[in-house]
Amino acid sequence: MTIWWRRHRNWLTPALLLAPGLFLFLVVIIWSSLETFWISFFDWDGMGVKTWVGLANYRELLDDPQFYVSLKNNLIWLLMFLLAPPAGLAIAFLVNQKIAGMRVMKSLFFMPLVLATVTVGVIFTWFYDPTFGLLALLFRAFGAEAPALLSNEHLVTFAVVASALWPQIAFCMVLFLAGLNNLDEELIGAGRVDGARGLAMLWHVVLPQLTQVAFIAVAITIVGALRSFDAISVMTAGGPFGSSTTLAYQMYEQSLFSYRFGYGAAIATILFLIMAVFIAWYLRGLIRAEKGA
């Protein structure tokens, strides 16, 4: 046994180390995804007998106005969340300067990242309160009345996304700070010798070295936008009148509150397919970047 182990330990050791994670991935991710897809073909309340309905859940979904509201809100989340990488990059450049007191500034910008999403949601719910919130105080200082953002079906999604954008910008800032701390000093020195200064140095020397970090920041930001749930659950519970619901929250609501697990599974499947398209694009870009390197 000892001789056999010595002969094969080059592949056995990493295989044994990877086995627990691989098992969890297969059970929690792959098996759960396949089970969700299978449940989407049934009418099921989560406890009783499943009734086969074929594609009926998907046909109902395509005729459901709430589905298109959720899809539109997911698009709003995606477009607004794409502001996080450039904002995080700008803040990273700011706090990376060697100026007195910048460590304190860096800590303040980092603070939202260590807060739970639920905490951020509660903070912004108080902030948006039209009677005693900070927003109301600011409006009163100028003699105006604060809008009830979380009660306005046309503005509520933008208000919720703004709250979720706060920690996302902090996350992108941390990623870009790591990238800035790993810049090639020789390339920067060569750029200075060639006369690169200011924007020329930024565009031709610094930003090309941050391509990989930017790609990761954009990818994680897009995934975060598509699976948006926590902030909605805390701040609006999908209201008013379902106007702030996203696909993830609609799936949760249909499954756990309406006891329509088959219909919720159909929504989850559609969301999975949307994310699968993005993941395919992400992997394609990653492979191209690796070949280019």
TrEMBL record:
<keyword id="KW-0472">Membrane</keyword>
<feature type="domain" description="ABC transmembrane type-1">
    <location>
        <begin position="70"/>
        <end position="284"/>
    </location>
</feature>
<dbReference type="Pfam" id="PF00528">
    <property type="entry name" value="BPD_transp_1"/>
</dbReference>
<keyword id="KW-1133">Transmembrane helix</keyword>
<feature type="transmembrane region" description="Helical">
    <location>
        <begin position="201"/>
        <end position="226"/>
    </location>
</feature>
<feature type="transmembrane region" description="Helical">
    <location>
        <begin position="107"/>
        <end position="128"/>
    </location>
</feature>
<keyword id="KW-0813">Transport</keyword>
<dbReference type="InterPro" id="IPR035906">
    <property type="entry name" value="MetI-like_sf"/>
</dbReference>
<keyword id="KW-1003">Cell membrane</keyword>
<dbReference type="InterPro" id="IPR000515">
    <property type="entry name" value="MetI-like"/>
</dbReference>
<dbReference type="GO" id="GO:0005886">
    <property type="term" value="C:plasma membrane"/>
</dbReference>
<feature type="transmembrane region" description="Helical">
    <location>
        <begin position="12"/>
        <end position="34"/>
    </location>
</feature>
<protein>
    <submittedName>
        <fullName>Sugar ABC transporter permease</fullName>
    </submittedName>
</protein>
<keyword id="KW-0812">Transmembrane</keyword>
<feature type="transmembrane region" description="Helical">
    <location>
        <begin position="75"/>
        <end position="95"/>
    </location>
</feature>
<feature type="transmembrane region" description="Helical">
    <location>
        <begin position="155"/>
        <end position="180"/>
    </location>
</feature>
<comment type="similarity">
    <text>Belongs to the binding-protein-dependent transport system permease family.</text>
</comment>
<feature type="transmembrane region" description="Helical">
    <location>
        <begin position="261"/>
        <end position="283"/>
    </location>
</feature>
<dbReference type="GO" id="GO:0055085">
    <property type="term" value="P:transmembrane transport"/>
</dbReference>
<dbReference type="InterPro" id="IPR051393">
    <property type="entry name" value="ABC_transporter_permease"/>
</dbReference>
